[in-house]
Amino acid sequence: MNYSHRFSDGRTFGHPLGKIVCVGRNYAEHAKELNNPIPVSPILFIKPETAAAAFEGEVQIPVGRGSVHYELELAVLIGKTLTNADVTDVAQAIAGYGLALDLTLRDVQSELKEKGLPWERAKCFDGACPLSRFVAADNLAAPQSARIALTIDDEVRQDGLTSDMLNPILPLIAYMSSQFTLKPGDVVLTGTPKGVGPIEVGQKLTAQLNDLLTCSAVVVPQKNR
Ligand code: ZN
Q1: pTM assigned to the model
Q2: Distance from the alpha carbon of residue 23 to the mean position of ligand 1, in angstroms
Q3: Segments making up each domain of the chain, as ranges
Q4: Hey, which of 34, 77, 115, 138 would disulfide with 95, CB 3.0 to 4.6 Å?
Q5: pLDDT tens column, 134-157
Q6: What residues in the chain have per-residue pLDDT under 50?
Q7: In angstroms, what is the span from residue 32 Cα to ligand 1's centroid?
């Protein structure tokens, strides 16, 4: 998909995307809507760099693999290596903030969950992580009280406040770095607020981070596969 990081002012970033580290059930209301218990410690999973695609123009989804759900999330661009970091290290290592869709093959995931199997087939397909451009970290003064919203065909489906996260951004990333190293160019997805649901070919998605960032795309069937 030839994805590369970009800032909202058009600047490029000095590191390619490595991995995308995600957290499940980081908003209580979202855990509830999927009938999941609230986890004791963060549930982590990773999407490969081949899942990334620009959240711009069009979003490609697989066809014939069951329902594809959107999950709008605040994305954090990592600018420095983090191993066993504390929250101060993490704060200094954040290069930018953006928007991501953690696209999920929900039927596949339910089947895998039932069998106690890993989620890769549901979460890691090509294009499973549309990423917006990033706002430089300095330009988002209060990332923990930001608003993220997703509109589908003019209907607001998700409208969440990052203040509702169960694991706030800095301790969440510190925890991730206690489990494995984060490197410059990695992206952290911080969980989705309530309101997830299926997307269909032909729908128009518009996502917003405060009044700093807007991106939109039309859903199209996956190509070249
Ligand atoms: Zn998610």
Answers
A1: 0.96
A2: 6
A3: 20-221
A4: 77
A5: 999 999 999 999 999 999 999 999
A6: none
A7: 14
Contacts of 120 (CB under 8 A, 6+ apart): none
- Which architecture, in CATH terms, is 20-221? Alpha-Beta Complex (3.90)
What pLDDT shows up at residue 1?
A: 57
Q: Which two tokens stand for residue 46?
A: 């990773």
Which residues have a beta carbon within 5 Å of ligand 1, which is an ion? 71, 102, 192
**How many C-beta atoms surround the C-beta of residue 43 within 10 A?**
15
Alpha helices in 43-168 (DSSP H): 87-93, 106-114, 120-123
73 alpha carbon to ligand 1 midpoint, in Å?
7
Q: For residue 34, what are the contacts with CB-CB under 8 A and spacing of at least 6? A: 25, 196
What is the distance in A from the centroid of ligand 1 to the CA of 189? 7
pLDDT digits (tens, 9 = 90+) for 175-184: 999 999 999 9
